[in-house]
Amino acid sequence: MLVLKEYYCTKKHPLFLLVLLILLAMLLTFFIPIIPEKFVNALIASFSIFTALSFNLLLLLIDMIKGIDTNISIKSREELQKLKLEVMNKCLKIISASILFSITDIILLLLISCDFKKLTDLINIKVISIIVNNLLIFLTYLFILLFFDSLYSILKIMHILITKEVDNKKNEFNKE
Prior knowledge:
Blueprint: H1 2-9, H2 14-31, H3 37-66, H4 74-113, H5 117-123, H6 126-175
Helix pairs in contact: 1-4, 2-6, 3-4, 4-6
């Protein structure tokens, strides 16, 4: 829960975003109530890959924070360090949430792909089966949307960080 709380603290309008994503997930659940098995398999593979890439991105961020120019004055270096740490902290929160969303999606998709018909026939309660299935599909859509939102946020922050690094390197070469 802490990861989710920190993730939503990085957003400007977290409540609006959450309501919008829940409504979108409800619409998807209503209009596309069954996720095809091929799509489930593709999503599981995709989320597995994105989870690994997110861990690598964390390492890249740590490496970027170490690469501060030592030729600038101490005061400027401290300010730059504080700024980078602040942006990195925000990005770490978003990446952590992205990993959580991805792992949750993998688990939900695995649950969807399981065949619970034997269990429901045994219990003979079809209504509960339908409710659980729709809830699983709704949660899957919701976490897919949350993952895409976090991925967009990561791309936006990484673009800013990398652009600033490139600009700093260009300035270093122009000084020489």
